[in-house]
Amino acid sequence: MPIDLNVLAEIGTRAGRLAQEERKRLATELKSDGSLVTNADRKVEEYLRTELAPLASETSVWGEEFGRDDEGSNGIWLLDPIDGTSNFAMGLPTWGVSIARWQDGQLREGCIFLPDLEELYVAAKGAGATLNGEPIPAVVSGRPKAFELISCCPHIAPLIGSEKVPGRLRCFGASVVDGSWTVTQRLRGLYGMGERLYDVAATLVLATEVGLVASYTDGTPLNLPSLVAGTPIHRPWQIMPPVDKAASSALQA
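Below the sequence we write its predicted structure tokens.
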């Protein structure tokens, strides 16, 4: 079923504003896996679960803080209420809200809002991607040049043989930031590993709509069915500009 992207954008924006309000009375704790969680993470996910249900009937939710339900007939919402929680808690602007919907074996819509940076990204399969309401241009094909920036966190660099990677490596500590800035080509490409689908689903929708290619670093397409089943991305992967027609279709699965 089609989703009203204007309403999705409004929900994403309000979720980000809620997080900003909750940060004024910030409370933090460590989860069992050692990662940080705040009052805002939980408040935002509760809000999104309530607001997204009427946007698309017969949908379920998989969120970072409160787990997942079985997929509904109209799909499942993939939520990261605050991606970049440590950045958020320390007062950095590089964090955001990520929302996407999976239905019938495909990622359908995605929304990323970076509240402190006032950047709102929205995309739907086959309908293009926008930043603050303006279309995001298609990426220019070809390998990154030596002076261009590539997103890659320090723990991933040795696994991909970073000395062979073109471009200068950067990491902003939030998948939504590194991902959306790759979509807008401030970063020419992105490397990752270990994320769950709710971390990167919205980025993947946006990336596909501007012509970027998501794959494992050996060039094989991401196994999206295994990711929606709950498996983390278990080996190094990338989002890069296409280098030829075969590469540009690698994400069409």
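The longest helix spans residues 5-23.
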